[in-house]
Amino acid sequence: MPAVGRSVAPRRSFLDNHIKTLVSLDFFVVPTATFRVLFVLLILAHDRRRVVHFNVTADPSAEWTACQLVQAFPDETAPRYLLRDRDGVYGKAFRRRVKNLGVEEVLTAARSPWQSPYVERLVGSVRRDCLDHVIVLNEQHLRRILRRYFDYYGRWRCHLSLQGDAPEPRAVHGPELGRVIELPEVGGLHHRYVREAA
């Protein structure tokens, strides 16, 4: 916790000032039907709450995590800042790869998830909107579920912080385009609504 009298304003202003050049990276765990634990890596761009990259593994390591970061940002598209926690999985190999990409790491304080609010909010949304309603069988099954969910999340899910838009901007369809129809997403867990020409 911050010391009495200290303000969290400097961190808040950093997030606000660098939102277009900042991504967050975090892991969360998912149990399977066979009582295995799978680790999901998320990389989230702050400006539009866009999921840049995700992957699933049963055995995360610094090398694997570094490779995921390189896959997320090919051909010199790396962001300026990477916000992450102090998890031990971000070892020397990971830190060396981040430095080689020219990315500056911004570390949160120990046991302070509120300092990385966007990616923590996404983890909560993934759990509430998706994973709390399915039984995961294995890595491939989880990867397929998350691919469908992140497609829905990026293209159709409304975000209050984006004035009701999705991370991938959408056009507004007026009533002249026809009646509203409902289409299932994520295996029927969610629905999107579009206008169908008469």
List the helices and strands and how they pair.
Layout: H1 9-17, E1 22-31, E2 37-45, E3 50-57, H2 62-72, E4 81-84, H3 92-101, E5 104-107, H4 117-129, H5 139-155, E6 179-185, E7 190-196
Parallel strand pairs: 1-4, 4-5
Antiparallel strand pairs: 1-2, 2-3, 6-7
Helix pairs in contact: 2-3
Computed structural class = alpha/beta
- N-to-C SSE string, H for helix and E for strand: HEEEHEHEHHEE
**What would the average pLDDT be, to the nearest integer?**
90
Distance between the termini: 58 Å
Separate helix tally: 5
Number of strands: 7
The CATH superfamily bears the name Ribonuclease H-like superfamily/Ribonuclease H
Estimate the global geometry from the Cα principal axes.
Answer: globular
Low-confidence stretches: none
Provide structural commentary.
The chain has one domain: Nucleotidyltransferase, domain 5 (2-Layer Sandwich), CATH 3.30.420.10. Helix content is 30%, strand content 25%. It has helices spanning 9-17, 62-72, 92-101, 117-129, 139-155; strands at 22-31, 37-45, 50-57, 81-84, 104-107, 179-185, 190-196. α2 packs parallel to α3 (92-101).
Quick summary:
The chain has helices spanning 9-17, 62-72, 92-101, 117-129, 139-155, and strands at residues 22-31, 37-45, 50-57, 81-84, 104-107, 179-185, 190-196. With 198 residues, it is an alpha/beta fold. It has one domain: 2-Layer Sandwich (Nucleotidyltransferase, domain 5).
